[in-house]
Amino acid sequence: MAEPKHSSTRLEHIDWMRGLACVLMFQTHCYDSWLSPEARKSAVFAWSQLAGTLPAPLFIFLAGISVALVTERQREKGIGRNAIARQTILRGAEVFALGVLFRVQEFVLGFRTAPWTDLLRVDVLNILGISMMLMGVVCWVTAGATGPLKDSAEMVRRERNTGMAGGIAVAAAISTLTPPLWTTWRPSFLRWPIESYINGVHIYGTPQPWLFPLFPWSAFAFAGLAVGFFLFTQTARWREALTFFGVGVAGVAVCGLSFGLDAWPFRLYAVYDYWHSAPSFLLMRCGILLVILGLAYFWCWWGLPSRIFSPLVQLGKTSLLVYWVHIDFVYGGLSILPKRQCSVTQASVGLLIIFLAMLGLSLVRTWWKDRRRSRVGVPSTARA
């Protein structure tokens, strides 16, 4: 059976989206760290902060797609659900450990000014790791619900469908439970380091929207898991371009649904906060992610990334590395510009320097990995 056309763009457009998340993250952090109080009143800073709401959902959503991609390929090879779950959970634990190590590093570098409570702050890497572990569990449970089958292809198809349904169900449950867990059902009986993983309360007594607790952020991972499994259905594989067009259209429809729910006079929750905890706002961000996914696919298929070097694809290949390193040169003691003292022009020049430096670091990392592969006889085009 012939392979569907343009199947090679799958990883490329995912890398492109990760690279987009990196660039949006760079600009948000640079302007936030360097702009003076007067410059922070400008339209540039306002738009920067608005764009800064996308990187975290993008990273977490794409982690869900990646888990679905790896899980599907392992199932097609006949690997059992226990082994797949073990690998996913261990990878999630590794990412969580990196998140803890990152917090320790930041505390050490800012030892004289950083409070010890920063060691226990809930950040993107922490929630990303836990979400991956939870996705491993959900994939294991949903795969077991299909029962034994003699036809391996049919078994993979059923496990894909149950995994897709499980991802949607968990994402919906997380988004539905978020408002009460932030307000009327707050688990205040827990110590703040534990409660913070549920609602981002940290040390402030109330949930903080700038932190990344499981509710609602892990919902993006399960939404990505469902989308990832959908992209492996037979229809999506053989009607790939049409499928991604449909994904973009569905994203627009989901955004419209979000506006409709927000305008609905009936309120399910005692405390309604559209911009932070409401399920309707999570729908809006999921809709935007679906639109970006559709556009990224067609851009990588027909656009310049398919013909020339793409900085975004390159950054996406090493997103964890550039995320980790750029923080110290923007927020840390190694900041290349004085914090809270720069004009928009100065901060923009600094942003360009950070972008080029991280792109160079990414290229060096890729070159080093390819060199190591060539030494052991692995083709440089191989992907994990």
Tell me about this structure.
The protein has 384 residues and is mainly α. The protein folds into 2 domains: 1-52 and 308-384, no CATH class; 60-277, no CATH class. 70% of the residues lie in helices and 0% in strands. Helix 6 packs antiparallel against helix 8 (214-230).
Q: Indicate the mean pLDDT.
A: 90
Beta strand count: 0
Number of helices: 14
Query: What structural class do the secondary elements suggest?
Result: mainly alpha
**Rg, alpha carbons:** 21 Å
Question: What is the share of helical residues?
Answer: 55-70%
- Determine the strand fraction and express it as a percent band: under 5%
Low-confidence stretches: 1-10, 380-384
Distance between the termini: 25 Å
Give the overall shape, derived from the CA principal axes.
globular
What is the N-to-C succession of helices and strands? HHHHHHHHHHHHHH
Give the oligomer, counting copies of the same chain as homo and different chains as hetero.
single chain
Largest sheet: none
